[in-house]
Hints:
The structure holds three protein chains of three kinds. Chain B is an all-alpha fold. Chain B is 74% helix and 0% strand. Chain B is globular and about 90 Å long. By secondary structure, chain C is an alpha/beta fold. Helix content of chain C is 36%, strand content 27%. Chain C has ten helices and ten strands. At the B-C interface, helix 7 and helix 8 of B face helix 2, helix 3 and helix 6 of C.
Amino acid sequence: MGRANFENELKQLHSEIIEMGSFVETAIDDSIKAFKGNDMELCKTIIENDKNVDEMEKKIESKCLWLIAREQPIASDLRKITTALKIITDMERIGDHAVDIAELTMRIADKNTFADSIHILQMATAAIEMVRNAVTAYVNYDLALAKSTEEKDDEVDEYFILIKQELVEIFKSQPQNMDNAIDFLLIAKYLERIADHAVNICEWVHFSQTGKHKNTLIF
Amino acid sequence: MVESLSNNRKITDRKKRPFEKLCYFFIYLLSACVLALVVYFISVILIKGLPAVTWSFLSTAPNPIKQTIGIFPSIINTLYIILFTLVICVPIGVGGAIYLNEYAKSKRFVRVIEFATETLAGIPSILYGVFGYVVFCVLFNLKVSLIAGILTLTITVLPIMIRTTQEALKAVPKSYREGALGMGSTKWYMVGTILLPSSLKGILTGIILSIGRMVSESAALLLVAGGLSQYMPRGNVVEQLSGSGSSLSVALYTYAYSRGDNETAFGIAAVLMIIVILLNLLTRFIAGRLNRK
Amino acid sequence: MSEIKIYTKNLDLYYGEVQALKSVSMDILENNVTALIGPSGCGKSTYLKTLNRMNDTIARVKITGDVFLDGEDVYGKSVDVTILRKKVGMVFQSPNPFPMSIYDNIAYGPRMHGVKKRIVLDEIVEKSLKDAAIWGEVKDRLKKPALSLSGGQQQRLCIARALATQPEVLLMDEPTSALDPISTTKIEELVSELKKKYSIVIVTHNMQQAARISDYTAFFLLGELIENNKTEIIFSSPKDTRTEDYITGRFG
């Protein structure tokens, strides 16, 4: 096999993205754990660790650009590198949303009264599973898994609509807790955004194998 | 680590190499000898020969009545021989070389011919003389004549022409041929417009070498063209060619050997030497002009 | 939709016992640039030379199959090869200008095909040098020897020389592989211009060059045509893994 150096670089790129993926998975796992258990210390840790995620994004970005300049990749090599550039953006945004959830958790603090009365924990579980599957689909270039994950997004969207309705009820019945309740709405919104980013990752995994993005042939 | 390969040696650390010094000494010594020989050779001939070279020497025929010696006929014969031999063997030689290099399909055939030309180039001239006598003088009934001499010399000199032309053609890069053919050139057109002009220098070298060989031929010509010329050259070229006559080298031989007249012989030798030197200078001059193009 | 200028069908070529081309069937479209790519010894140069019968000059070459130019059999009995090569010009890998003046180099082809009038020759020389984008650089020294030009200029001179016979097809055998990057760029731009008037087939080792300047790319391997398609497709999603492996540099 020729281009051993290039092959090694591509393998390393793959590993670095998987590493970034696991960092980001940990981040939102922790953020939901912290939300469930009102763990302020964990929240602070999550917020601290986000800069690691940002650093990783920059490092991988730079590596991709240098690979393009040095190696003139074409065909499947170019698809791999393009996919890498695109999904690190989505991963970094997922990391940011984990931080947002942690910050909101800190704001809610002891006033966390609605966690059990709305479907927010179920929604979180679904969203986290989507992120885990998206990263796994990337690791193994598993198109079937990517497709099923994309389809799961409907479930998360439904949860969001449900939670909104539940919160509207709470606004009506407990207007004194509206301030708190709105924070819960925001957390739900971030979970919905996290799920969307997971879908984006799956779409780019699809592209890396077929050249089609959202069913349009682009390369 | 091998001592002589170790990097402890300084680059200024010169090894004394006595054997090489000895070799240098011998080389210079031998070169000096060669140079001395050449200088001696030329000087002896010129010193002994030039006194005999007078205007009448150069412009008259030997006159037994007046007891004078003249080599004019021999000079003319030599010039005729050179001219006509070239006229015959240059087209044949160049044409043959072109065929062998560009057209011949069978590699084996080419190699056989090349072997033949190389062998012929090394045959002693007396053999050509014998061959020429039997074939041209007797078989073709040309008798002992200049024309027979010319034909014999053609055979002698043909291998040289073919070989040098072949080498010159081989030296033309293949890319020229491809370039011309790729544009729709016929082979002939390509040969005439690209190959021949490019090989001109080599062909010229062949001609100069051939002239040198012709001028030095004595044994063959003696047999085939005849002994000392006694009469002024006839006006009619055909008549002149069909009669016998001596070239300068044959005349030299006759004076030196049959007549024991060393003064005249040296005179002819001096004339021949000057002609050879002039021809060499001519070659360099023409080659120089072609180079500048 | 472009017309088919040249097509080959089941073309086989043998050098003695060795088969150098195996059943190659391919169309070359008019006013398009077709690139031939493949590892060394794959047959792409051999294929190129089949199109203008330059393989005839090599002994022990046997060719079977069809090669048609404008619907006429190139290897037919009554074909005049000199006219074929006037119509199908060739530019070689190393620039090979003749040891003559620039003017005489360009005028060589026209003179050979019968043009004698000085005025006509002057016109042809000027036009060819302009088409090859080198007129400006040499117009004041047409009588100087062609070998006094730089490598890149010599190659453009050879292109001008090929254009002087007013061909319809231009065959180029790795024309920039011996040149520096700037000369290479000039010639690539030239090819993009020339394809408006000529059909061009170019053999190249440089993937990026093929991707930049060709409309169609054909990948050869061990004498076989593996894949022939629009260049965009070959370089983004080739159908054959061998093509993909070659263009991504995994072998060859």
